[in-house]
From TrEMBL:
Highest taxon, organism lineage: Bacteria
Keyword annotations: Aminotransferase, DNA-binding, Pyridoxal phosphate, Transcription, Transcription regulation, Transferase
Protein name: PLP-dependent aminotransferase family protein
Region (Disordered): 80-100
InterPro entries: Aminotransferase_I/II_large, HTH_trans_reg/aminotransferase, PyrdxlP-dep_Trfase, PyrdxlP-dep_Trfase_major, PyrdxlP-dep_Trfase_small, Tscrpt_reg_HTH_GntR, WH-like_DNA-bd_sf, WH_DNA-bd_sf
GO molecular function, one term: transaminase activity
Coiled coil: none
Amino acid sequence: MQARYLPASTLTGLLGEWTGGPGPAYRVLAERLRLLIADGRIMPGSRLPSERELTEALGVSRTTVASAYRELRDSGYLTSRRGSGSVTALPSKVEPELGRHHAPGIDTEGLYDFTCAAPSAVPGISTAVASAALELPLHLATPGYHPQGLPVLRAEIAAAYCERGLPTTADQIIVTAGALAATSIAVRATTQIGDRVLTESPTHPNSVDAIRRSGCRVVAVPMSPGGWDLPLLEATIRQTAPRAAWLVADFQNPTGFLMPAADRQRLARAFARARTTAIVDETLFELSLDGQEMPPPFALYDPDGVITVGSVSKSFWGGLRIGWMRVPAALVARVLDARASLDLGAPVLEQLVVADLLRKRSTLLPERRASLARRRDALAAAVASELPSWKFRLPAGGLSLWCELPEPVGSSLVGVAQRNGALLVAGSRFSPDGGLESFIRLPFTLEEDALRDGVHRLAVSYNSLTDAPARRTGVMIA
């Protein structure tokens, strides 16, 4: 893929008032550029202006710019490519955790990865880390173990729930190392080996794995073409009496459905009648892409019977590994006891970073949503053009399209697509009970050009499986 050129005028605007810092001018310029790259405001893979162009735009000496570029090359933030000039990079190659979704050890370099529904970091992470580092010395005199989480972070999370109409105190918040850890702890706290736990189908496979590793039996209720089948859910709750339920009410993963307020109230009542503890994942809550008003939190309809799971992995960055639970006051001690056998708390520095990000979310998240909306629309247009037989509905939020194929070839497509340079997860992986071979989840977290190119490779792969004519000809996949 060709490096995207960053004009000198644009780069000058991003740099702002960069002069006047301590040390030589070239080091000040290099540090400012490094922060812009690390923060995501200059994307990795961008081609910077030539030394001459930037020298003229900034009004500095050629030596200053040349030395700054050299500093960036030496630290791994800039590479020189023949025919491309100086291209931004991150200092070390980040390998995705491939796990069960890929062959062991596979390298995603040069491949279009549709396996991970998680975007890159929002601009502002590096600034938040720097701010948190200034606060860290205040905590170094303590042992550093905080099983419930830092008070400053718990207060920010509790305040966010109060703003949404759900009264919450900081004592009800338990900070964890991500949403999956929160799910595991919540299941362990509310169930015993052999208990039934209700889930949706399709749903997030890693969470289902966590439930099963707790020794529980999963009871999966299929989603309908329009969302949640409330009569079927109510009947299943009556018939199976699940001890707990795990579901995603906000832009359900992978279908993208948003549960209406009336359905939340009805389902919460069904859980309360059965004395089923609902564990509701709100990881995607912040990713409303069409500006619609969000329904109230599920827990509002049963504050004493619902554990709410949250995270910054999708909204800010998965690399922070910070999640949390909002727990009914009567269950806090039980959840903390369950947590003690799994870990002793989340990292202090990352908690300080997240507290800073949450204070700034009203300024950081609008651009995140706008970017994802553009990528969603680009992916939807590409699928409609290249794969017109695939069916999907445009989700109002979240991170992926859930596509229905005319034939049950999902697992076969995964292997063919990989050989053509695109990585997929078969729809069957999202089914607790198997099946769903006619479905594929396509995240829209890559850049728009990469999404279009990746879909073309999927189309070539799919057409080779089904003998369907390609929408475009004359393009060879290497």
